[in-house]
Specification:
The protein is α+β, with helices and mostly antiparallel strands. It has seven helices and six strands; from the N terminus they run ββββααααααβαβ. Helix 2 packs across helix 4 and helix 5 packs antiparallel against helix 6. The relative contact order is 0.20.
């Protein structure tokens, strides 16, 4: 049974009618194929089949994805490593400086899944440091209900597991409106055609 049309609007591509329905949406705009957003408004054009989602609370959403990757029990994939690099605000050039490698090495990590445990742990620690700074340094952090103590313990346990693993696996992440709300999602609104975590390359 088809879901009910909640809203309509004009298609930016063809000028036709777009019908908005609540449903699941594979959020590939973030650079990952593994993130599904549940129960969001997605507009479909009845003429040209263009699809336009309303991505909720992108600042919180991207940090929630980063936190899930930070606590992942297997090695990061190349795409996940790239997502975390961008979430940290590093261009490829800046990341090369931080990691002490050249561009070819970084491109290899991000496109061929050829990084090792040391690289994996370093990227996670960079993300962990960014989250800690945000939690500790802002009167109203983007992520709510995350404590430094709890996050530190979880990261420590994850890093121990990473030391013992050799596998790289893409896990699937489904993010519900309730989970997003738990970390502060609804207060930040929604945007159309959300861009990835950072515009850096």
């Amino acid at each position: 049974m088809a879901t009910q049309v909640i809203a309509t609007e004009k298609c930016r591509e063809c000028g036709g009618v777009m019908e908005g329905r609540k449903g699941e949406y594979r959020y590939t705009e973030c650079g990952l194929n593994s993130v599904t957003l549940e129960d969001i408004l997605v507009f479909h054009c009845t003429h040209c089949n263009d699809i336009v989602p309303e991505i909720p609370a992108t600042g919180v959403l991207h940090r929630l994805i980063a936190m899930k990757l930070l606590l992942k029990k297997t090695l990061l994939t190349g795409a996940e490593l790239r997502f975390l690099r961008k979430m940290n605000g590093y261009s490829v050039e800046e990341f090369c400086e931080v990691m002490g490698v050249n561009k070819d090495v970084v491109y290899g990590w991000e496109n061929k899944r050829s990084h090792g445990k040391t690289t994996d742990r370093t990227v996670r620690l960079l993300m962990f440091t960014k989250l800690l700074k945000e939690i500790a340094g802002q009167p109203k952090p983007v992520l709510r209900n995350v404590t430094i103590q709890h996050l530190s313990e979880e990261v420590e346990e994850t890093l121990k597991l990473i030391n013992a693993t050799k596998t790289t696996a893409e896990e699937q992440y489904s993010i519900s409106p309730e989970e997003l709300a738990q970390f502060g999602g609804p207060e930040t609104g929604t945007v159309r055609d959300s861009t990835p975590p950072s515009s850096v390359n």
